Amino acid sequence: xxxxxVTGAAGFIGSHLVDALLTDxxxxxxxxxxxxxxxxxxxxxxxxxxxxxxxxxLVEADLNTVDLASLLQDVDLIYHLAGQPGVRxxxxxxxxxxTRNNILATQRLLEAAMNAGHVPxxxxxxxxxxxxxxxxPLQEExxxxxxxxxxxxxxxxxxxxxxxxxxxxxxxxxxxLFTVYGPRQRPDMAFQRFLTAVLENRExxxxxxxxxxxxxxxxxxxxxxxxxxxxxxxxxQHEGGLFNIAGGTRASVNQILEQIAMTTDRQPLKRCFPAQxxxxxxxxxxxxxxxxxxxxxxxxxxxxxxxxxxxxxxxxV
Length: 317
Hints:
By secondary structure, this protein is α/β, with parallel strands linked by helices.
């Protein structure tokens, strides 16, 4: 068995995936450009344990400029998690960054995977691709209508994966991830912001009325989904396929704050602001196709997952 390549290896989800692959005895090459979206030191902490592992190699590089042919030597599976995150920052002049890091980098990696002998690729997409569709729960066969430039770029990369499978026979699978949370979550994401504010006795900024809902997914369940998809992709199954990955726990922001109060034994302080452009109102995933095709089933409850993240936030102090 060759090496596994993980792009975005030092990020929130990528670093958890790297740790799991190493625990399984796989040889892993991680790529990360350490973009300045948030403090580099956070990513260095994420990947610190892996960097001391004999089966891990970290390459600091930009997918748009690195020699991908050399990078893919001896690689037999790609997990592509690298990209520019964030809905609210994707408007205006920053769209060029999202286009470069989410679309162009993906196309370049797909070309390289094809030229390297059709190396299978699992792509990390987002529920933001759906937009505000009127029917719930969201199913893969629905026509997506993203409401943010970020969502547009994630959908475009999905289409590229499907095209390279259909036209060139490159094995690809895309996973639409629904609101992932847990230890190492990015500092701009909701649960990390909320829990840190509670710890520091600060106000939590709430955008909108707090009634908007999300389907929350613990990071360990997402890692399980990637590994199942990787095995299927290696076996040539579900080529060009698209799957919802969600935790099965739909809750409103207000309900999350109630759960945080129970988890932390502290009452969150909140301050409301207008809803932000590009934020979808609700997400809720139908995962029947994922369960039937990949054998995926989320295991971690929202209460348990929040407890894990709360303990991690406390250790960071």
